[in-house]
UniProtKB/TrEMBL annotation:
<keyword id="KW-0808">Transferase</keyword>
<dbReference type="GO" id="GO:0019432">
    <property type="term" value="P:triglyceride biosynthetic process"/>
</dbReference>
<dbReference type="InterPro" id="IPR029058">
    <property type="entry name" value="AB_hydrolase_fold"/>
</dbReference>
<dbReference type="Pfam" id="PF12146">
    <property type="entry name" value="Hydrolase_4"/>
</dbReference>
<dbReference type="InterPro" id="IPR007130">
    <property type="entry name" value="DAGAT"/>
</dbReference>
<keyword id="KW-0012">Acyltransferase</keyword>
<dbReference type="Pfam" id="PF03982">
    <property type="entry name" value="DAGAT"/>
</dbReference>
<comment type="similarity">
    <text>Belongs to the diacylglycerol acyltransferase family.</text>
</comment>
<protein>
    <recommendedName>
        <fullName>Serine aminopeptidase S33 domain-containing protein</fullName>
    </recommendedName>
</protein>
<dbReference type="GO" id="GO:0004144">
    <property type="term" value="F:diacylglycerol O-acyltransferase activity"/>
</dbReference>
<dbReference type="InterPro" id="IPR022742">
    <property type="entry name" value="Hydrolase_4"/>
</dbReference>
<feature type="domain" description="Serine aminopeptidase S33">
    <location>
        <begin position="196"/>
        <end position="389"/>
    </location>
</feature>
<dbReference type="GO" id="GO:0016020">
    <property type="term" value="C:membrane"/>
</dbReference>
Length: 721
């Protein structure tokens, strides 16, 4: 008889070293009769807590407090045994509302060796059925965080998110399914375990989504549960889903059945090589900025430490267990594929390009066309076990694909999670690091008395602040601007073109790209409601009145402001008493020459049809009455690179609108302030174009020589303001 375990687990177990870790597991028989009785202590293995409470007659006994749970009511095991409503009062004290900027997500501190070491302890036979556990490393989640249920692959251990526990634990209540080594629960039985937990969570919090993260076999399980529960708000994260198992070119099952018992000890090393990229696994905790020699030393150390641990795979999946689970996988894939049409949940498929076990990339294409609401991201250099490999932070991917929400509808303002330290390093060291090195931005600001100074001392720390500026060619200045403000502990929320968030753009995006990183760094679609929400929450907001037309300007229009004639942001800023900060930026002509603009490209056959097609699918932010700035011509200009010069930013004198709301209701006053902001931006551009001629380090050659002799310094100096 199979027992179903639904979790009643606090995600905060064993946080304080002085308290005994506590978590409870409710046992319930699938086939009727008495519930299974379990008896063991709560244990903690490598930061993972396991339930070892005793349950009898359907009541859950918490070994840490002497309380029992019956019919979702806490029974105080103290003096009177009085009944108490099952309220999560602990949540009010334990959770917090906001994450600090550049918070520590722990990514890059764990490797696959930590997974293997943890698995070695967890797989010790206890005779129990499948169960949920909450990793202690996950810590305290944000207030109103959704539940995330991790469904493992063939290993069944449940530690597949070991590299991601700390990061995910801030955004979710993380629970992981553990399938013991010698458990033989059928696929239908496992599906019912997950389904019951999903329904209990939905009944408890009907307005929150429930996340199912399924890896390989677990992805089949997630799809099956979603197909059976179309009315529950589920978000599926499918990692190399094994729905393609029938098309696998690796005949594991026949090989295993024919493999002599004496050679089975060699099999883990073969499986380890096939399922993942050993180099990427060993690089998971290596700093990108380390010199090559130190990187190689760390890589060598990680590989030599990892290889002896691989032998534990033969204990995690003995031959008999692996044969059973491969048969289980076959039935799971068939079940999931037969019910794809019934899946209503939104899904995100993460597919590896170097998956030696499954045709994951082709399967991602198939699932995207089969599922009604599906996004896909490809990771061409990763293997089958991508969650264990370097350079893939699961929380970052969820944020960058706009899949993180805490209620029925996505709100990019209230659901935003600030970038972490590891995201900052990855975005600005690995993704745009060479571009930053080439452009070496120099920033200046203006104090209240009108004095121009180096750095951002003239920028108000407290919001709301509305940055209004010139949009450089292709928006190249954005990455430097956001990075420099993050260094000053200021989160700048950019309002971007809605097409970056549209389904049409999503169809063009397959890899995790710069557009995804923009969303990780706080970009939202430019709409009045989003601007309203951002200013009402006292944010620092980046707005370009020239928008797309200014960023995709034509030849001869460099540093020309292409703004609407009518003011669009003044009254909104005054409504919240926001400080308007005009700024100028120059440097596009120092890194590239615009060789082909819109008019040139429209003369080229095939390309002109592609541009017309993009225009037809694009969103219109402004109507044609706004003039030239309302243009929706989308194209990628042809650029001729130059020996890189430098980017310069000048933030003008802050313009305070607090107390001016009534005055700016007058259209004439509103127009005057609008024109004043515009003139300040033009003056800033003119100032920078003139002063950059005085910069001794404007050329990358001069900056390279400077760095060679002054490497300890944080930056390269520029002209004196």
């Amino acid at each position: 008889m199979t027992s179903v375990f639904s979790c009643s687990i606090s995600p905060y177990v064993a946080l304080n070293s002085g308290n005994k870790p506590r978590c409870g597991v409710r046992a319930q028989s699938l086939g009727g009769g008495d519930s299974t009785v379990l008896s063991s202590d709560v244990i903690v293995v490598n930061g993972i807590s396991f339930a070892g409470t005793k349950e009898k007659n359907g009541a859950l006994i918490d070994g840490g407090s002497g309380e029992k749970v019956k019919n979702d009511t806490l029974i105080d095991g103290g003096k009177n045994g009085s009944l108490k409503p099952r309220e999560k009062k602990w949540a009010k004290d334990a959770v917090f509302k906001d994450l600090e900027l550049l918070w520590d997500d722990g990514y890059g501190t764990k490797t696959v060796k930590d997974y293997l070491d943890g698995a070695k302890e967890i797989i010790k036979p206890d005779g129990g059925p499948p169960r949920w556990f909450c990793p202690v490393e996950c810590g305290k989640p944000l207030q109103d965080s959704p539940v995330l249920l991790f469904l493992p692959g063939l290993d069944g251990v449940g530690l597949g998110l070991a590299l991601h526990h700390k990061a995910l634990g801030k955004a979710f209540e993380v629970r992981c399914l553990h399938i013991p080594v010698y458990d033989r629960t059928s696929f239908e039985g496992l599906m019912k375990i997950v389904e019951e937990t999903v329904r209990l969570e939905h009944d408890s919090s009907p307005n929150k989504p429930i996340y199912l993260v399924g890896e390989s076999f677990g992805a089949c399980l997630a799809l099956a549960v979603a197909a059976r529960n179309p009315k529950i708000d589920l978000v599926l994260i499918l990692v190399n889903p094994a729905t393609s198992f029938s098309r696998s070119q690796l005949p594991l099952l026949p090989i295993l059945e024919a493999l002599p018992d004496g050679l089975h000890d060699v099999f883990p090393y073969l499986v380890g090589f096939v399922t993942g990229n050993p180099l990427k696994m060993a690089m998971a905790n290596i700093e990108y900025k380390l010199p090559p020699r130190l990187q190689f030393q760390q890589l060598y150390h990680n590989l030599t430490a990892l290889l002896p641990s691989v032998s534990v795979l033969s204990d995690i999946i003995p031959k008999e267990t692996l044969i059973w689970r491969l048969k289980l996988l076959k039935s799971a894939a068939a079940y999931a594929n037969s019910r794809l049409h019934a899946v209503k949940a939104e899904a995100l498929v993460l597919a590896s390009g170097n998956d030696n076990m499954l045709p994951s990339k082709d399967e991602a294409y198939r699932l995207k066309s089969s599922l009604k609401n599906c996004k896909v991201r490809y990771f061409n250099d990763n293997g089958h076990s991508m969650l264990m490999e370097h350079g893939l932070n699961l929380l970052t991917i969820i944020k960058g694909t706009c899949k993180y929400r805490r209620s029925k509808r996505l709100d990019l303002v209230s659901d935003f999670l600030p970038p972490s330290k590891s995201e900052f390093k990855c975005a600005f060291d690995e993704v745009t690091g060479l571009f930053r090195l080439a452009t070496c931005p120099a920033l200046f600001s203006t104090l209240d008395d009108g004095k121009i100074v180096k750095g951002l001392a003239g920028v108000p720390d407290e919001g709301p602040v509305l940055f209004i500026g010139y949009h450089m060619l292709m928006g190249l200045e954005i990455y430097s601007l956001v990075e420099e403000f993050l260094k000053e502990n200021i989160m700048v929320r950019g309002v971007a073109h809605p097409d970056l968030f549209s389904k049409n753009f999503e169809d063009l995006a397959t890899d995790f790209s710069l557009s995804d990183w923009m969303k990780v760094m706080g970009a939202v679609p430019v709409t009045p409601s989003n601007l309203f929400k951002l200013l009402s929450t006292k944010s620092h907001v980046l707005l370009y009145p020239g928008g797309q037309r200014e960023a995709l300007h034509y030849k001869g229009e460099a540093y020309k402001l292409i703004w609407p004639d009518q003011p669009e942001f003044v009254r909104m800023a005054a409504r919240f008493g926001a400080t308007i900060l005009p700024f100028g930026t120059v440097g596009e002509d120092d890194i590239a020459e615009l060789a082909l603009d819109y008019h040139d490209l429209m003369k080229i056959p095939i390309l002109n049809d592609f541009i017309r097609d993009l225009k037809g699918k694009g969103s219109r932010v402004r109507d044609e009455s706004k003039g030239e700035v309302a243009s929706t011509d989308l194209f990628i200009p042809g650029l001729l690179p130059k020996v890189p010069g430098r980017f310069y930013f000048l933030f003008g004198k802050p313009i305070k609108t607090k107390g001016m709301k009534e005055m700016l209701e007058d259209k004439e006053n509103e127009s005057q302030l609008y024109l004043h902001v515009k003139s300040e931006v033009q003056n800033s551009i003119a100032y920078l174009l003139k002063k950059r001629e005085e910069d001794p380090y404007r050329s990358i050659i001069d900056r390279t020589i400077y760095r060679a002799f002054n490497s300890p310094l944080p930056g390269v100096p520029a002209f004196d303001p």
